[in-house]
Known about the structure:
This protein is mostly helical and 196 residues long. The protein has 7 helices and no strands.
Amino acid sequence: MRTVLISARTCFQLAASTVSRRPSLLRPMVASVSQMGNFTPMAGTVAFRRNIITTVKSTGSQEEEILVAQRKNRPLSPHLSIYQKQLTNVMSALHRLSGVALAAGFYGVTCSFAAASILGVPIDPSALVNFFAGLPTFVDYALKAVVGFPFVYHCINGVRHLVWDSSHMTSLKGVYLTGYITIGLTAVGGLWLLFC
């Protein structure tokens, strides 16, 4: 974990640039300082007098320059590549990808049936069955696996999410347990669909 230290000068510059863009932020500060009257600050504190911060009218280009200068000093967020892959984020990504792929396939098939009826191209379910029956065995199994495993995974992982929505198995141990159960049931269900 990286700690970023900001100097008092930088802090003051940031405050001044913020106030210059939005002078309404200064009014409560000025009122509270003027109500305090004469006071002696405790050791280690910083006291701002009312006349230190003044608003300056700036143009859009000056504000842009200030913003660019601030962005140069801003630390960058770490990229996703530095994080170790975990069961939770991989299963979340696979759930989304399988849902998108299944939806695209479903809409592709239904839209092709609708377009075929509009264009007068005969697409008959019995012709599709005969086409798939004539495919070589390895192509048949590959197509079943490409469709079957994502379907089973998305369904079982959806049930897993429903269990979480009922406030069960939401601890870290429960999340991993349901993840391993989902992977196991996906393997069993996908193989069952593949060979039936």
